[in-house]
Write a structure and sequence with these properties.
By secondary structure, the protein is α+β, with helices and mostly antiparallel strands. It has 26 helices and 19 strands. Strands 5, 6, 7, 8, 10, 11, 12, 13 and 14 form a 9-stranded mixed sheet that branches. The protein has a 3-stranded antiparallel sheet with strand order 1-3-2. Strands 17-18-19 form a 3-stranded antiparallel sheet, with no helix packed on it. The N and C termini lie far apart (about 125 Å). About 25% of the residues have low confidence.
């Protein structure tokens, strides 16, 4: 009989995977047993849970016994039915089994909640332990999230009984000593009320908490338990008696509330520091330097907590603002106090939004007359030369100002400059000459080499003298500069030139207003970058000019300036209003201003109309108060020359015209008619066609390009000499501007005008020849450099005799001969060695 082969221990280890056939033992992974969280049996908290479970069982049993006589009382009068008596023992047994099951579930529930309340047992005596259950947990409470438990309805009822009983229990600070009190008889079960989430920073009063959690009304022997946060806590009680804390909102919500509700316009806003207040990098937007509005605030500040405190009193009246009117004449009320220190009430002016009614009609208005009195022409009858016209702007007062502050600045550095008016004019002539005779380095004007040597410049002023004057050139006192004005170093010169440019402005009715860029590639807070412009980097100047390019007013852009007038109209509109006031003050009259969409708005047109002026300009879509015009998309689908227009009740017309692209123009001085025809090239027909054009578009195209023409004239012959200091570029621009204005006057009043280049050359030659200082006799510069390549070419090196003896270029002895081509003294015997490499 065959017997089964018994497996050896070796084979068993190989079969179970604990060892390889070669005898190598395989390390086995230990099985991870489920981690059980058990409480210490000897802990007081475990005893507390067991006693609570026992007390709950006895309480239920006692309640059941108390209810039996009430149910059997009617049975003494009327005997129960036999069917009911038979079912009684079975029902009782069923109830007892349910109680045991509920008791087990309750004990498990208490054990699970032990982890949650274990850290809260050791609370101070002043705080009730049941407050931990009533107060909602914070969102970031990790323990509450891990031990989250959802009881059934039966367990919730038992939990309510336990919590009411927990209120009666007096626990000590360590949570180990406690006293069990029996439940009062006759207590009725409370109604379940859903718990609403409340803010941690908002503490309701006792009355509000009572309303939030009502207690059922009971009959005789019933007991009501009211739970309040200030029960047994003096701090909560004092806080409830003080005025209510302001509700915590975000700054974005408060600003929306202020915009929609005018009744709380005088409330104070206390902003808490944002989360990234101490971060090295903020999320602030770069935007416009003219910031200060709610739209430019960073997101961290908009979403930070803020308090909206309502004091119920009107804001204080601002005596400086004549447009502000208080609601009543009652004295200022004392604002309510709170735990947060209130700032002074904000003075927010109500802005009345005027809704315009637009209708489709043409604008019929008479053109303005322009200047009231014509300018006198007597100062042009005798002055014919370009230099004399230029000195209308650079007169003796302006020259003395430059000379004075340049010498003052040189003295502060310990340099004796000794600059005079005549020497400054010679210096200015060299600056103007560098505009049409440009060299890579300004020192090359004084070199002796024939390719770059300029006899006019070298004979008028020494090179080192020019460098000294240029490095000390100043137009203001550095000890008396306005810290607010970023261009205070140039402000005295700009003010004087503005007066003279406005004084000699030609008799014009139409004036354009635009920006002007001055190139600069250094570092300065006012340097601008404008993409798509011919000059992308540099300083921006706001300029008002005639249609031909005479600049009569200019100001540098320096960002936000507290001295800006008409700031409520915006950056661009305030500049146009400043220019119109300066022009009207110098030459009273009514004018027509033309500008682009950066400046145009309906509010600006209304303001200029109230001053007696007219205006025309392209306008952006968000600056026309939702005029009911055809959309760009719909207008683009129609044929070229189609337009749509609307007019309001104040004399402003807005027209949208389809040309190469759709353009919108607003005007208070030009309408649609008379229509004109313009020539355009059609890509579809491959020929030029006639397109109708509204009159207001024609006015804009005709009178808008004044500043651009001035920019073109200056850029043609801009001075190539530049300094390293930040103010050198705008300072030289001032001199270029007055030279261009002088040429504009020359064209206007001279019968035979010359072009700008010839006008510039005549000024340069006059200044260098009249005010130049030739070098003194005996002063010689460095030896002249010769061309090395022509020295060794062996062509036309002829030795000729000269009238006096000079040093030989080869042996350095006296000789009466020289090389005619190389222009050096040379012996005949030294000629071969000198011309051989």
């Amino acid at each position: 009989m065959l017997m089964p082969v018994q497996e050896t221990a070796w084979e068993e280890l190989i079969r179970t995977g604990q060892m390889t056939p070669f005898g190598t033992q395989i390390p086995q992974k230990q099985e991870k047993k489920p981690r059980k969280i058990m409480l210490n049996e000897a802990s007081g908290f475990e005893k507390y849970l067991a006693d609570q479970a026992k007390l709950s069982f006895e309480r239920k049993k006692q309640a059941t016994c108390n209810k039996r006589p009430a149910r059997k009382a009617p049975a003494s009068v009327t005997p129960p039915a036999p069917t009911q008596s038979k079912n009684k023992p079975n029902k009782k047994a069923k109830v007892l089994s349910k109680k045991e099951e509920r008791l087990k579930k309750h004990i498990k529930k208490l054990q699970k909640r032990a982890l949650q309340f274990q850290g809260k047992v050791g609370l101070p005596k002043a705080r009730r332990p049941w407050e931990s259950d009533m107060r909602p947990e914070a969102e970031g409470d990790s323990e509450g999230e891990e031990s989250e438990y959802f009881p059934t309805e039966e367990e919730e009822e038992e939990e309510e009984d336990d919590e009411v009983e927990g209120v009666e229990a007096d626990l000590s600070g360590d949570g180990t000593d406690y006293e069990l009190k029996p439940l009062p008889k006759g207590r009725k079960r409370q109604k379940k009320v859903p718990v609403q989430e409340i803010d941690d920073d908002f503490f309701p009063s006792s009355g509000e908490e009572a309303e939030a959690s009502p207690i059922g009304e009971g009959g005789g022997g019933g007991r009501k338990v009211g739970r309040y946060r200030d029960d047994g806590d003096e701090d909560y009680y004092k806080q409830r008696l003080s005025p209510k804390m302001p509700r915590t909102l975000s700054l974005h919500e408060i600003t929306d509330l202020l915009e929609t509700d005018d009744s709380i316009e005088a409330s104070a806003i206390v902003i808490q520091p944002p989360e990234n207040a101490t971060a090295p990098v903020s999320d602030e937007e770069s935007g416009d330097e003219e910031g200060g509005t709610i739209n430019n605030l960073p997101g961290s500040l908009l979403h930070t907590a803020a308090y909206l405190i309502q004091d119920g009193s009107d804001a204080e009246s601002d005596s400086d603002d004549p447009s502000y009117a208080p609601k009543d004449d009652s004295p200022d009320e004392v604002p309510s106090t709170s735990s947060v220190q209130q700032p002074p009430p904000s003075r927010r002016r109500k802005m009345t939004k005027i809704v315009c009614k637009w209708k489709k009609a043409d604008l019929t208005v008479q053109p303005v007359a322009g200047r009231v009195t014509a300018p006198p022409n007597d100062f042009f009858t005798e002055m014919r030369t370009p230099t004399e016209i230029l000195e209308l702007f650079l007169d003796d007062e302006v020259i003395e100002l430059i000379v004075k502050y340049s010498n003052l600045y040189a003295d502060s550095k310990g340099v004796h400059l000794g600059l005079t008016s005549s020497e400054f004019k010679c210096f200015l002539g060299i600056i103007f000459l560098s505009g049409y005779v440009s060299v890579p380095r300004r020192r090359m004007f004084w070199e002796q080499r024939t390719d770059v040597h300029n006899v006019l410049v070298s004979a008028a002023m020494r090179r080192d003298r020019f460098e000294t004057i240029f490095s000390n050139l100043h137009v203001a006192d550095n000890a008396d500069l306005d810290p607010v004005d970023k261009f205070s170093k140039l402000r005295p010169l700009i003010s004087k030139l503005n007066e003279r440019c406005m004084k000699f402005v030609p008799n014009e009715t139409y004036f354009s207003f635009d920006e002007f860029m001055v190139p600069y590639f250094g570092r300065h807070g006012c340097k601008q970058f404008i993409r798509g412009k011919p000059i992308r980097f540099g300083y921006k100047f706001w300029c008002g000019a005639t249609c031909l390019g005479y600049i009569c007013w200019f100001q540098p852009y320096q960002g936000k300036n507290p001295n800006t007038k008409h700031e409520e109209y915006g950056v661009g509109a305030s500049l146009v209003l400043q220019f119109s006031e300066a022009l009207t003050e110098a030459h009273p009259g009514r004018y027509h201003f033309v500008f682009n969409n950066f400046f145009t708005s309906i509010a600006l047109l209304d303001k200029l109309s109230s001053m007696g002026h007219q205006a025309t300009g392209t306008v952006r879509k968000d600056h026309i108060d939702k005029v009911p015009l055809e959309s760009d998309v719909a207008l683009k689908k129609k044929e070229r020359g189609t337009f749509d227009y609307r007019i309001d009740g104040k004399g402003n017309i807005v027209c949208r015209w389809n040309d190469n692209s759709v353009v919108t123009v607003a005007s208070s001085g030009a309408g649609i008619h008379p229509l004109c025809l313009v020539s355009r090239y059609s890509q579809k027909l491959k020929k030029k066609i006639q397109v109708q054009q509204p009159n207001m578009i024609k006015v804009y195209n005709q009178f808008m390009g004044g500043v651009d023409r001035a920019d073109e004239n200056i850029d043609k012959y801009r001075a190539s000499i530049r300094g390293k200091k930040w103010y050198s570029s705008p300072l030289l621009f001032c001199f270029e501007l007055v030279l261009q204005n002088a040429w504009q006057l020359h064209k206007t009043y001279d019968e035979k005008p010359v072009d700008f280049l010839e006008f510039r050359r005549r000024v340069v030659c006059h200044y260098l020849e009249t005010h130049g200082h030739p070098p003194e006799p005996g002063q010689k510069g460095r030896p002249q450099k010769r061309n090395i390549d022509s020295r060794y070419d062996g062509i036309n090196h002829v030795i000729v005799k000269q009238g006096k003896q000079t040093r030989c270029a080869e042996c350095h002895k006296n000789t009466t001969f020289r090389c005619e081509k190389c222009d050096v003294a040379l012996h005949v015997k030294c000629s071969v060695e000198y011309h051989t490499e």
